[in-house]
Amino acid sequence: MLNKRTIIIIGAGVTGLSTAYRLAKKEAGKIIVFDKGKTGDGSSSRAAGIITGLLWSKTGVEARKVALRLFRELSSELNGYSFQDVGTLNLLDQQAWEQRKLLLPLYEQCGAPFEILTAKEMRTRWPDLYPSGELVGLFDPLGGYSEPEDYLAALKIACNKLGVDIREEEPVKDFVLRSGSIAGVITEKGLIEADAVVSTVYGWTNVLFSRLGLKLPVKTVVHQRYVTEPLHHTMSIPCVNADPFYGYCRPAAGGRLLFGIETSDREEWRVSDMNFHLDDLLRSPDPRYTEAILREKVRENFSSYFPPVKNLRWESSKTGLLTFSMDGEPILGPVTEVPGLFVGVAFHSGGFAYNPVSGLLLAELVTDGKTSVNIDAFSLSRFSNEQTEKYLAQTVQQKNVAKRRH
Ligand SMILES: Cc1cc2nc3c(=O)[nH]c(=O)nc-3n(C[C@H](O)[C@H](O)[C@H](O)COP(=O)(O)OP(=O)(O)OC[C@H]3O[C@@H](n4cnc5c(N)ncnc54)[C@H](O)[C@@H]3O)c2cc1C
């Protein structure tokens, strides 16, 4: 007998679509996904799509192990999508390495493979890279990247084929509660009843949750990345999380390169309106962080390490938001104040990397009430109301949000 439950997902980014995909595969009931824009209209279509399994917490490492496996499986499940299996190199200066090497026992304990490389070994393996002598490479051989647009398009088709009802340009304006539990949502077309609602609205989470009088300890910051013209010769490089150069790079489709750059002194961005669109970020740019200035910064920072970037022309750029929780770890799980409501947010700069496992875990929570990975460390209830109020009352610069890369 078919399951007659209705499950609503708010947000058709990678987290929402992955949740829908997993729920539909489990035949969990009628699945409806609402987005206020088109699929991928949030940060998902703007992501660099890089993933590493070498994170900072046991829960993070265990969850990413599943994500890395799922990306590989999705390469055969989704038409038009392939995970780019190039590995991810985490570049560290000596000071950062002293901290990072404390995590190696965790990686060993969780079975997350890694290699430690000297500058000379990195040069030998990737002759196009010129890391200076003091840098250490922490290489994740299972890491890599996805082209977000291919991934989103393929996932959307797969969801449609499984019967997921994706309703674009239909914002959710409010929640409906019955005896304190979730009973549905309201869109401009009216009330849609549901047995469970999953919120995956990322940068818009606090605006949406204000309808319930709830606040999450989540900060939102602006982030940008740029793609070059095609290179004259094909380069064989991994994804590189290049903290010493305040950014990252990876190969991109068509023999191009993609670079992301930090803006550490920039203040957080507060989303205060449900109608806010990421393109609004480009309409009145802060003169200190214009595209021209930031692209020049990429050249400056990366040219010793990666000389071709000196002369390459830029072809495209993307600007979006990142969300961070107070302790830097994601928030994923039930919203205990409102039975039937679940949330996935604050994936730092790694929400794309988390998405297959975020979707799996949210689907497990909705259908089984428990998860295959212990995610207590991601629970919303780890924060007290007092901590949340205090955190939200501060205005932070980007350098003060927990340092996490992909
Ligand atoms: C420049 C850049 C580079 C990045 N690079 C990487 C990377 O290399 N690796 C990585 O792992 N991550 C990266 N990220 C982060 C990653 O993009 C995000 O963590 C991820 O896309 C979050 O996905 P999501 O589905 O949770 O949110 P989103 O993609 O933001 O989706 C939220 C959706 O909710 C919709 N929405 C909002 N309010 C409502 C409402 N009321 N009703 C209906 N719909 C609503 C929005 O329209 C949006 O489509 C990057 C981000 C940026 C900006």
Helix content: 25-40%
Rg on CA atoms, Å: 21 Å
Strand content: 15-25%
Instruction: Profile the largest sheet.
Output: 8 strands, mixed
Question: Structural class of the secondary structure composition?
Answer: alpha/beta
Name the hetero compounds present. flavin-adenine dinucleotide
Individual helix count: 11
Large-scale geometry: globular
Strand order of the largest sheet: 5-6-4-14-15-16-13-17
What CATH architecture label applies?
A: 3-Layer(bba) Sandwich
CATH H-level name... which superfamily?
A: FAD/NAD(P)-binding domain
Mean pLDDT level: 96
How far apart are the termini? 41 Å
- Poorly predicted runs are none
Outline:
With 406 residues, the protein is of the alpha/beta class. The protein is 28% helix and 25% strand. The protein has eleven helices and 19 strands.
Q: Could you describe the 3D structure shown?
A:
There is one protein chain. The chain has eleven helices and 19 strands. The chain has 406 residues and is α/β, with parallel strands linked by helices. The protein has one domain (6-400): 3-Layer(bba) Sandwich (FAD/NAD(P)-binding domain). The strands form four sheets. It has an eight-stranded mixed sheet. Strands 8-2-1-12-19-18 form a six-stranded mixed sheet, with helices on one face. A three-stranded antiparallel sheet has the order 9-10-11, with no helix packed on it. A hairpin with a 6-residue loop joins β18 and β19. The mean pLDDT is 96. Bound molecules: flavin-adenine dinucleotide (FAD). Flavin-adenine dinucleotide is lined by residues 10-16, 34-37, 41-44, 46-51, 171-172, 200-204, 208, 223-225, 260, 274, 318, 320-322, 347, 349-353, 406.
